[in-house]
Backbone:
């Protein structure tokens, strides 16, 4: 498969500390890639290396199948980005800020109106950015990133500082990009819930290392629900279930089974009752993605 | 007030402003080194001081104090330091005064280190003439007093502008003309940026404690101090952060 | 591409007062002589017979200081425009080479300084005419003393541009600038190889254009070193 973004053993070292350590990112075309990790896990450093802002200490970055080291400019022509806080020139208007970028990327002037409309800033186009709210600045940053019709859009914490309606709006905007324009999107966040509803693939980074990278479905599968049986004698029930051929885990005063299919649960319960166990409760427990994400990154931090 | 002072001093100590203090003595060594010649004066120290003080007080002192004033505001301008500071239970007046006193303190230190560099240079060059302590003290302190209004203006400007270059430009625009103005007996005494030179010019009038008449000290240095200090003070009271 | 970058750089300095400073510099230098001659023209005339020579000397006493401080201010201003919201990262993530970004900054400030020098030339000439300094107008000297300091100060530009772009704290380049101006003011005591002496056009062979030539060569060298370092560095 050809990947739009591919990194090999990407590493960045600051002094003794490895901020990014052997990260391997694989992003196929048309995906929305949620790049997750707690603050300080190495997300921004990785993104800066993807954009050629920082040189990797070792390892390589390939975008569109080309080595970033030798084709930086050709690659960046096809990439739009917004890194951390939006950068802008406060003394210039929104329009002039875009013009400063347009002159470099060389697209028709009409495109500026298009992107301003896309992020709903057309009415503020001639106002100095100094007076913009944070949300407006962020939207201007997105407009700037989209100006040259990139094939890959890299957004670092784009919802930082946005209010809830701003976040929803941003999500709507980003979600339509792959379908409508065939853009591949990389979006970093420290909150799973933010990318949960739009990402198709997720990568989780913690302490500079990639600890999970797969489709969002695969992550959801980990989050699958389990059935907890509260019984009079968990140990004996556990034994009985093993005999029955059903995997189970002993919890404090209950037994957990992974299957959630109605039929199977029914027959297991029936079997246990026939064996003479008293069943007090049959409960379904769901782990949220957020919990899983927290667990993943926490384990990593303890280590 | 004392707690603000301690906090400000702490912030300052953690920055590299301390390194800035080593610039004046280095400049002193340089200027002392190139200052020699016959100016009809027997004492080698005085020859050195007259010439070195001239460049030092005319150009260096006014410009470097602007850098110090800019420095002391720099970390407040970054990432919203002002709003954090002023949201604390402190009055703006006290914050302003503290910053001003701190700059003055740094400038005094610079003056003393400059004096030190002259002594070192003399020792290296083996000057055996008696060191004219009395007039040197008067010039070191005089230069310091004369800078106080300029520091106030620079602090004011540094509070207005986020970037370093704008207050520095204003400083340059006022400092460069003093090279010419001090030559004029008519206008020299009235130009605030010329006062550091006049007050460090150890060949000047010697009747007073300082090298300029008391009236001039009060009117020009005192007057410009009042304008600049209270201008900055009022600005800071109203500054939107 | 470099022309487009340059257009962007000129767009960015709008409303920031850089053009104003570009004009104030040379106007200020000549205005000081207006005051000087306004106050004591008779005295100045009594000192020598070669009034043009004296006049050019008076003007050019300030030129090196003004040009060095101008460089310090313009480079620092330019850098602070990019630093304010860390626009470097946005700029460098665009399809531009870092070399060209640096070249564009260097070129923009050179343009401003050159405009300054032209204004200085015109101001020196026209104000000189009003003073009645004599019939023999030393055109060549006026041109030399207005334009050569620009070329002779290119090494200082190279140094200050490098410092301003790589330091986040603009106090550093500014402090270096203050030291530079002390050197420039003490030019007559410095050996010929010191770059801060060059804008004074003074050298042991009495050949002002030599300083211009050395300035171009050394300026180019320092520019290349600065650019190489800028390219090598991670973006802030």
Residues:
């Amino acid at each position: 498969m050809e990947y739009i973004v591919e990194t090999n053993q990407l590493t960045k070292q600051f002094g003794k500390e490895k901020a990014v350590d052997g990260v391997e990112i694989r992003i196929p075309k048309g995906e929305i890639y949620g790049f997750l990790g707690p603050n300080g896990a190495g997300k921004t450093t990785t993104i800066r290396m993807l954009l050629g802002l920082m040189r990797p200490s070792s390892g390589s970055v390939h975008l569109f199948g080309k080595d970033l080291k030798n084709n930086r400019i050709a690659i960046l022509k096809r990439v739009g980005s917004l890194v951390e806080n939006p950068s802008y020139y406060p003394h210039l208007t929104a329009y002039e800020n875009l013009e400063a970028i347009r002159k470099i990327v060389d697209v028709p002037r009409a495109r500026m109106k298009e992107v301003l409309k896309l992020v709903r800033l057309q009415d503020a186009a001639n106002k100095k950015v100094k007076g913009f709210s944070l949300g407006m600045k962020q939207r201007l940053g997105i407009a700037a990133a989209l100006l040259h019709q990139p094939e890959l859009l890299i957004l670092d914490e784009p919802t930082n500082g946005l209010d809830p309606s701003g976040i929803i709006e941003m999500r709507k905007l980003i979600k339509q990009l792959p379908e409508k324009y065939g853009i591949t999107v990389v979006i970093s966040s420290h909150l799973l819930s933010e990318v949960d509803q739009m990402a198709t693939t997720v990568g989780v980074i913690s302490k500079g290392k990639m600890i999970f990278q797969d489709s969002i479905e695969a992550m959801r599968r980990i989050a699958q629900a389990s059935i907890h049986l509260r019984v009079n004698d968990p140990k004996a029930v556990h034994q009985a279930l093993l005999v029955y051929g059903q995997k189970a885990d002993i919890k404090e005063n209950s037994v957990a089974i992974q299957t959630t299919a109605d039929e199977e649960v029914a027959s297991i319960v029936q079997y246990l009752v026939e064996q003479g166990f008293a069943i007090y409760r049959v409960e379904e427990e769901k782990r949220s993605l957020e919990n899983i994400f927290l667990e993943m990154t926490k384990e990593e931090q303890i280590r | 007030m004392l707690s603000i002072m301690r906090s400000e001093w702490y912030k300052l100590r953690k920055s590299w402003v301390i390194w800035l203090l080593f610039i004046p003595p280095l400049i002193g060594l340089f200027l002392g080194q190139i200052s020699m010649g016959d100016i009809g004066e027997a004492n080698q120290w005085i020859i050195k001081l007259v010439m070195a003080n001239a460049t030092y007080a005319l150009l260096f002192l006014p410009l470097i104090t602007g850098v110090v004033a800019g420095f002391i505001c720099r970390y407040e301008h970054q990432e919203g330091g002002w709003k954090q500071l002023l949201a604390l239970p402190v009055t703006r007046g006290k914050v302003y005064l503290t910053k001003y006193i701190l700059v003055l303190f740094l400038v005094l230190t610079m003056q003393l280190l400059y004096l030190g560099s002259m002594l070192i240079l003399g020792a290296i060059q083996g000057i055996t003439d008696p060191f004219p302590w009395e007039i040197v003290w008067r010039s070191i302190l005089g230069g310091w007093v004369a800078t106080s209004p300029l520091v106030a203006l620079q602090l004011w400007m540094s509070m207005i502008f986020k970037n370093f270059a704008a207050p520095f430009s204003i400083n340059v625009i006022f400092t460069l003309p003093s090279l010419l103005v001090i030559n004029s007996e008519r206008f020299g005494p009235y130009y605030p940026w010329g006062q550091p030179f006049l007050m460090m010019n150890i060949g000047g009038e010697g009747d007073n404690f300082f090298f300029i008449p008391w009236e001039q000290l009060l009117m020009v240095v005192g007057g410009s101090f009042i304008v600049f200090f209270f201008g900055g003070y009022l600005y800071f009271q109203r500054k939107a952060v | 591409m470099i022309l487009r970058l340059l257009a962007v750089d000129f767009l960015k300095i709008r409303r920031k007062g850089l053009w104003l400073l570009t004009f104030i510099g040379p106007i200020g230098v000549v205005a000081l002589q207006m005051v000087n001659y306004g106050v004591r023209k008779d005295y100045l005339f009594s000192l020598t017979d070669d009034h043009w020579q004296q006049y050019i000397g008076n003007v050019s006493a300030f030129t090196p200081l003004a040009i060095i401080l101008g460089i310090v201010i313009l480079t620092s201003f330019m850098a602070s425009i990019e630093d304010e919201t860390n626009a470097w990262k946005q700029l460098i993530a665009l399809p531009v080479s870092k070399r060209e970004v640096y070249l564009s900054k260097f070129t923009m400030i050179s343009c401003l300084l050159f405009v300054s020098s032209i204004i200085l030339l015109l101001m020196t000439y026209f104000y000189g005419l009003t003073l009645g300094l004599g019939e023999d107008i030393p055109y060549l000297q006026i041109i030399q003393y207005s334009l050569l300091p620009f070329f002779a100060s290119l090494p200082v530009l190279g140094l200050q541009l490098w410092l301003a772009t790589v330091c986040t704290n603009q106090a550093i380049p500014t402090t270096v600038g203050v030291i530079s101006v002390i050197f420039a003011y003490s030019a007559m005591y410095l050996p010929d190889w010191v770059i801060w002496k060059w804008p004074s056009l003074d050298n042991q062979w009495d050949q002002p254009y030599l300083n211009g030539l050395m300035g171009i060569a050394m300026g180019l060298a320092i520019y290349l070193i600065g650019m190489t370092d800028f390219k090598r560095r991670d973006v802030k």
